[in-house]
Amino acid sequence: MRSGNAIFASGGTTVFEVMSGLAREHGAINLGQGFPDEPGPDSVIAVAVMALTEQSNQYPPMMGIPELRQAVAAHNRRFYSLEVDWRQEVLVTSGATEALAASILGLVSPGDEVVLIEPLYDSYLPIVRLAGGIPRLVRLEPPDWRLPRAALAGAFGPRTKLLILNSPMNPCGKVFQREELGFLAGLLARHDTVALCDEVYEHLVFDGAGHLPLMCLPEMRERCVRIGSAGKTFSMTGWKVGYVTAPPALLSPIAKAHQFLVFTTPPNLQHAVAAGLALDDTYFAGLAQRMQAKRDRLTQGLARLGFDPRPSAGTYFLNAGFAKLGHDADDVSFCRRLTIEAGVAAIPVSAFYAESGPRDHVRFCICKQDSVLDAAVERLERYFTRGHRLTASAGGD
Ligand code: PMP
Question: Going by DSSP bridges, is the β-strand pair 224-229/242-245 parallel, antiparallel, or unpaired?
Answer without folding.
Answer: antiparallel
